[in-house]
Write a structure and sequence with these properties.
The structure is a homodimer. Chain A has about 375 residues and is of the alpha/beta class. Chain A has two domains: about 170 residues, Rossmann fold (3-Layer(aba) Sandwich); about 150 residues, Rossmann fold (3-Layer(aba) Sandwich), CATH 3.40.50.10490. In chain A, the strands form two sheets. Chain A has a five-stranded parallel β-sheet with strand order 2-1-3-4-5, with helices on both faces. A five-stranded parallel β-sheet of chain A has the order 7-6-8-9-10, sandwiched between helices. In chain A, strand 4, helix 7 and strand 5 form a beta-alpha-beta unit. The first copy, chain A, is globular.
Chain lengths: ~375, ~375
């Protein structure tokens, strides 16, 4: 690890196109980012039957509430799942408060609940505990994990398996997006989610298109080598993308990166904005686009240094640093009956890719080893 | 406002004891912090009947899930409510995702839900929309607001009224703690919450005891005048306190303040810690105390500059800056049947007080006007 760190700080790390073979000195994190299209394809192919079985159990039990539990990156996948499951099924979805289970233990009324525990290692003791207690309280329990024989998988009724292959970088990438894909598969298998199902096989192509941002991002990060802090903004389905990008920047680049939903941002934190403050804004097309544009105008007036990740000309033209995605469309361009387009529901998966690239290339530009953040280990044992 | 700003940056602002009368130049925020004991007493006295009526409706409808919606400070009160309601009643509690209502509109299955909308002004359009849509979908709806004739109150079935008096500072203080107290009153009125009810009248005394930290905090902040960023940590019931303190620091002092539950902190953000990094840790007695002590040891090893807010000798002795609270005990010292003590459930109300003082005195020490953060207005219109 030490050798790799010296290596990466000595030699300039050139951006490569997605299909250039990686050398042995490529950081695990960068290699794992590139593995995402294949990992997603595997995850979706392997879990269709399990997702159908969970959906049948949800119907049989008359589930009235869904609870998602995860820590760190897994909590961000849970946040994406909260928006997607709630939007498509109409069932209220809560993010769990694990310490209520592990520290304050009390009976929960979960007979009509689906409780989903997320942990790439399947070993987070608090998430295992949430699943074990919820199952004992009568909930239908599901594990989402990258280890099939893990304590988490053993504690749950059903397991959605990431099948992402070993993740060697401490900073999670492919286990994040495979988890998001599995939550999308589950949502698409429940009543209300049907229209999403035929589009899921096109997720790997979306991820490949997003990998094309690599060269732009690798060139852009140099501007931010000495940035000590930044703000990361996203709204709706992309709030999870903002949170996950901020965490990647914190753990690999030691940047104090504060994520906000752009709505919450206006309720106070906006006061932080001053000339030169780096702000990363996820600005996809769709329902949140007018809000993104208005916010971008406000930020520019105050001289913020705005990195915009988007597809449309308007927000990108206003950026200090523009990261343009060119994603294949999944839906027809016209809205059918005011329905939210599936593009918007699935966009958080390709949109996190430039965020991941930003973190890995900024770490390299700072001479840091993105695979081995100080003070962290791959499996975190919190109770 | 400009006059006040010059005033506060010209003359040193001396700490005063809680009972010193405030001059006309006292910032509204400081005056409003001191109004909290009386405001809480009014709020609790005025809302007992409404809380009982809501509890009866919850029983009648067989509520299976509770949803809380708020933005900014109101979202932090919601977070406290999430922990407290879930812990005492066992009913799963979700924080709402307002943009799903306002931007992505879809039918929600809320016939067995209690939906609580929180807005001090009662005017946040997205929170009003959450309540209106939820009520149309068959939910039992409750407004928590400081304006009885507001759009939010009019949209909801029932209103819990803060009765905090006009809040003139943009940075909310007394509307935060009165909202927390009203959520505690509601929790205490529901099955499972009974043991909390007799202790609520003692909340004003708890708040008065917390006001005694003023002089310590006013003296301590000078060390942090040039701190650009910091981390704020709390766990369990105090996670809301950490988030609310971070927001106060961001909006009044322009400090990039990142809040984490100390469990999530270990899953990535811990990599940020380096020598001299300011960390504010809420370390109350009780179930989270061992975790706080372990974390504090870890932070000290890495040279972090730790402000500890607590009552017990062990964590306070390890602080760079110790802020000791001397709170009257509510429960007997022994645990009865392993039950979590009411002290721990109510502690977030007095513990936020030194956080509020920290923000107002640090703003004054920096020559800022805490009542009027740049770029903000008292009512935020987000959709």
């Amino acid at each position: 690890m030490q050798a790799m760190k010296s290596e990466s700080s000595r030699t300039p790390h050139l951006p490569r196109t997605p299909h250039t073979p990686h050398t042995p000195h490529t950081p695990h994190m960068l290699r794992e980012i590139h593995e995402q299209p294949d990992a997603l394809q595997r995850a979706l192919e392997m879990n269709g039957v399990v997702a159908q079985r969970i959906a049948a159990a949800v119907a049989r039990r008359g589930v009235q509430v869904i609870v998602l539990a995860g820590r760190g990156t897994s909590d961000h996948a849970a946040l994406y799942g909260q928006y997607l499951l709630q939007h498509l099924t109409g069932i209220p979805v809560a993010l769990a408060t694990p310490s209520l289970y592990t520290l304050f233990g009390a009976p929960f009324q979960l007979q009509r609940a689906l409780v989903i525990g997320i942990s790439q290692s399947g070993e987070s003791p608090d998430i295992v505990e949430v699943i074990a207690q919820s199952r004992a309280a009568g909930a239908l329990t599901v594990a989402v994990t990258n280890r099939q024989d893990s304590p988490l998988a053993n504690a749950a009724d059903e397991t959605l398996f990431c099948a992402a292959g070993a993740e060697l970088s401490v900073a999670a990438t492919k286990t994040y997006t495979t988890t998001c894909a599995l939550l999308a598969l589950l949502a698409a298998s429940l009543p209300g989610g049907e229209r999403l199902l035929p589009h899921l096989p096109r997720l790997p192509a979306l991820m490949r298109a997003a990998l094309a941002t690599e060269e732009t991002v690798a060139g852009a990060v140099v501007r931010y080598v000495h940035a000590r802090d930044c703000i990361v903004l996203g709204r709706g389905f992309q709030y999870s993308t903002a949170r996950e990008t901020a965490l990647k920047l914190a753990e690999t680049c030691y940047v104090i990166a504060m994520p906000f939903s752009s709505a919450d941002f206006r309720h106070g934190p906006a006061a932080l904005v001053e000339r030169g403050l780096p702000v990363i804004l996820f600005a996809p097309p769709g329902r949140t686009a007018p809000d993104s544009l208005a916010l971008l105008g406000w930020l520019r007036e105050r001289g913020a240094d705005c990195t915009v990740i988007g597809e449309e000309r308007h927000p990108l033209e206003q950026a200090t640093t523009a990261i343009a995605l060119d994603l294949p469309r999944l839906s027809e361009d016209t809205e059918r009956g005011g329905e939210v387009q599936v593009d918007e529901l699935l966009a958080p998966l390709p949109y996190i890719v430039p965020g991941q690239f930003f973190a890995v290339y900024l770490a390299l530009a700072k001479g840091l080893n993105p695979d081995q953040p100080r003070g962290l280990t791959k499996v975190t044992h919190t109770r």
